[in-house]
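re: that chain from earlier
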Amino acid sequence: MAARPTEVRDDDVEVHLVPMRRRHLRSVLRIEAQVYPRPWSLALFMSELSLRATRSYTVARVDGVVVGYAGLMLTGEDAHVTTIAVDPAWHRHKIGTRLMLFMARESVRRGSRNLTLEVRVSNQPAQSLYHQFGFQPAGIRKNYYQETNEDALVMWAEAIDTPEYQARLEELASRVRGGTVDDDGR
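^ sequence. v structure.
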């Protein structure tokens, strides 16, 4: 079992990013149920994992325990963050930042020029994180989150394949204390 996050200093945290596999889904679904009013089903995750050519799903692990995950859909020059979540016990340990850094880099590695996502209009902490990554509001999807009748803010980060954007990512990465290990060599 991973050390309890309240007992861990950020300098001591080593987060391993690994491709999401079926064996991770029990932990992913546990987090999903904690953070979303309408969590994705096992069948939906299984379907997404089977689409390897156009999807990339990653889990963040600390001491072998899944503490967060993120997903990406790739379509031409655009990549779409389909999901990102962090175990609430691990908030404020830069797990979300590490996952977003990976998603942005993976998008470029797989040929994308732009990155998009939807976020609840009420989720100011997430919007703040996305702004750090250069995301700008582009529109509203009315009642996108049907379970709460909440609108989604559509956000885009453009030209993510430029040296300027890569410098932004390096700056963000330099502020993350502790270690991040990409266990797939991506």
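The longest strand covers residues 65-75.
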